[in-house]
Amino acid sequence: MGEVASGGGCCPPMDLFRSEPMQLVQLIIPIESAHRTVSYLGDLGLLQFKDLNAEKSPFQRTYATQIKRCGEMARKLRFFKEQMLKAGVSPKISTAHVDLNIDDLDVKLTDIEAELTEMNANGEKLQRTYNELVEYKLVLQKAGEFFQSAQSRAIEQQREYESRQLRGESMETPLLQDQELLGDSGKPVKLGFLAGLVPRERSQAFERILFRATRGNVFLRQAVVEDPVIDPVSGEKTEKNVFVVFYAGEKAKAKILKICDAFGGDRYPFAEELGKQAQMIKEVSGRLSELKTTIDAGLLHRENLLQAIGAQFEQWNLLVRKEKSIYHTLNMLSLDVTKKCLVAEGWSPIFASKQIQDALERAAIDSNSQVGPAHHHYKCGLSQKGFLLVSIRPAVLLKNIALKVAKYQEANPTVYTIVTFPFLFAVMFGDWGHGICLLLGALYFIIREKKLSSQLDDITEMTFGGRYVIMLMALFSIYTGLIYNEFFSVPFELFGPSAYACRDLSCSDATISGLVKVRRTYPFGVDPVWHGTRSELPFLNSLKMKMSILLGVAQMNLGIIMSYCNALFFRSNVNVWCQFIPQIIFLNALFGYLSLLIIVKWCTGSQADLYHIMIYMFLSPADDLGENQLFVGQKYLQMTLLLLALIAVPWMLLPKPFILKKQHEARHGDESYTALQTTEESLQVESNNDSHGHEEFEFSEVFVHQLIHTIEFVLGAVSNTASYLRLWALSLAHSELSSVFYEKVLLMAWGYNNVIILIVGIIVFIFATVGVLLVMETLSAFLHALRLHWVEFQNKFYEGDGYKFHPFSFALLDEEED
Fold it and tell me: If both were cysteines, with which of 327, 445, 451, 778 could 66 make a disulfide (CB 3.0 to 4.6 Å apart)?
């Protein structure tokens, strides 16, 4: 149980019952060795520093510049990580130690960032030029097809006209054709044109706007580009169309240019002559091949640089985070008046004194310091920090069961909760068939925990985190299921034949009176003959209700005994005599007596009515019990217990406030004049200030607090006992639901003698069992068991107003990283 949480053998075996004894530490460190000292203490990880500069803002502290520099280095490393993720390069974990100074690393990171930024800028510029040339080539090819087809049509028309001239005029030839042709050839119209690409989704709107803006005085031709092209501006793949717009006049051209810009159209220069078009395509193709070669070389160089960064990224990142945490810690230290030393205060476990002293001396030697550090330690007060080193398995099992951090050296409830929590869960979940299913699921998580730990979402992460406690819950459920003799609500004669047999053939539908005992009592758990009879429900109701009361009273007594252990450890006699004794008397005078009556009734087989006995114990304590008497002298015992319970209430309420007032006056009554304290004495007083403070004693406040505590315990003794009846209620509900699913689904489907109905019935039974009994009922029983520990058990002794021990440790940097 005493495995050390931080490996390396630096810590002695721990006691799980209480937190480790702590001490207040004061260190006086020379300036020249401060950095190395804090670094060695971070490697040790056993000292939590106090912030002695809490009144200063982060910018007013001594090492604000260094922290800013570390933050800038961390930003550069994040930039490198983003670039590696984009390039698909993963950082490598290197075991080789690289001795690199933080100043050299800063210079190196700055140079690498400048180089990488320049490479990215050049790469983006080259890629944009390449994408523009790809679009330009598409425009030359598609628009060239327009002009080529138009020229071929014009040649055909010219040839047709010439052939007509050679044949001469005919009667069918229009009279004005020659004049029109001559008139047109005499007045040539010069048309301009623009070519480019426009996004395909905007092409129709682009065409309509052009037509309306120019009143139809344009001629537009479009061609679809089969494959998506990379847009030079956005860098995303986009489906585009090549367009050529013919226009007449500068006004039309200005309108067309504005419309192109509005629709995101990219325009490119284009020559009308076919020869120049072919030459331009050849030049663009040559430039594309050159750019492709240049871009590939740049990408290869960039990948090599990122590979070199990834090989040392983890070491650089760790070094920067260490430096930043060191300067954060140094900012918590106060400068001595001579400004040659730093004064540090903090908390550490007592066993760590020698390790801290060794680290200080080693840092002074390695720093060539002329002055050695000073180390003082003082025993801390009872309400200071708590430190609990536990083995890894209990920490995983019940990480959050305690809900709050224990007060300093307060009894640890999880030591008992490791057993009581899964057991109370199993009382409500008792079915060894369901327990086996739960166990298989827990074992799957445990066996494949290394692989599954990195593949979890938010929902399964909680289940995976509690895999060990689920395993214990399953094992206890199998145990209680064997006691209840239920396997998916079906009883089995696992430990021998039933002790009862039928008198005649008609007893199968009768009550238990139709059975006769022919053998000795069934050796373990509930006799299977009870299942299916008319007396099953009354019998199991009585059994589970009484068992719930016994378990509840036992656990509440354990909580009160734990409060006695705390009082004994803290040497608080007033809590022993005015809290533990009256509480144990009150609880057992009422509900301990009820538990005794249950056990006596089970042992004797009496038919006494326990409800009647408990009610008339308060209403008529002097009356004879008659047939409800279980043993001789029961009436006088009841009167004695009732009197003790009545005495225990003022015993809890009245003495403690007056005793505390008297103790306070005795402790601080003669402190009008005291001698001046030395530095060590004042620090000792400060460390004990929380538990032995000099504030004024408020008797009324203490009395009201004690009154509330007394009323809470008296009423809570009744309500908490009733609260444990949830064990009976949920156990009965689980058993009845399991029985309904088995009888009304599986057996009913079996009775039809139809394969399809049987298969459907089995599927419904499986889904109902998994969804309701193995998921919803598991969650319900888990939450109810959790409540019984948080409220009914822990409120008897557990205050939970402590603080977690957060040592300055490099091993915890991953958990604290933003």
Answer: 327
DSSP symbols for 695-712: SPP-HHHHHHHHHHHHHH
- The span from the CA of 349 to the CA of 386, in Å, is 9
Residue 459 class from Cβ within 10 Å (0-12 exposed, 13-18 middle, 19+ buried)? exposed
- Please list the ranges in the chain whose pLDDT falls under 50: 1-9, 170-171, 175-176, 178-186, 382-400, 510-511, 672-694, 818
For the purposes of burial, counting CB atoms within 10 Å of the CB of 517, is it exposed (0-12), middle (13-18) or buried (19 or more)? Answer: exposed
Q: Which amino acid is at 556?
A: M
Residue 8, pLDDT score: 40
Residues in CB range of 93: below 8 A, 6 or more apart: 314
- pTM score above 0.85: no
- Phi/psi of residue 342, nearest 5 degrees: -110, 135
pLDDT of residue 690: 43
CA 818, CA 813: separation in Å to the nearest integer?
A: 10
Measuring CA to CA, which residue among 378, 384, 418 is closest to residue 398? 418
337 burial type by CB count under 10 A (0-12 exposed, 13-18 middle, 19+ buried)? exposed
pLDDT number for residue 96 = 59
Angle, in degrees to the nearest 10, between helices 726-741 and 414-428? 40
How far apart CA 360 and CA 373 sit, in angstroms, is 6
Residue 236's Cβ-side half-sphere holds a number of Cα atoms within 13 Å equal to: 4
**By the 8 A CB rule, do 543 and 486 touch?**
no
Question: Is residue 34 packed enough to be buried (19+ CB in 10 Å), middle (13-18) or exposed (0-12)?
Answer: buried
Query: 240-247 and 341-349: which strand pairing?
Result: unpaired
CA distance 663 to 753: 83
Provide the CA 328 distance to its chain's centre, in angstroms: 26
Report how far residue 446's alpha carbon sits from residue 468's, in angstroms, rounded to the nearest whole number: 7
Q: What integer pLDDT is reported at residue 244 of this predicted model?
A: 87
Among 400, 403, 406, 401, smallest CA distance to 388 is for 406
- At residue 673, φ and ψ (nearest 5 deg) are -125, 120
Q: Give the C-alpha separation, 690 to 794, whole Å.
A: 24
Element at 198 (helix H, strand E) = strand 192-199
CB atoms within 10 A of CB 394: 19
The answer to whether the beta carbons of residues 721 and 593 sit under 8 Å apart is: no
Cβ pair 364, 28 in contact under 8 A: no
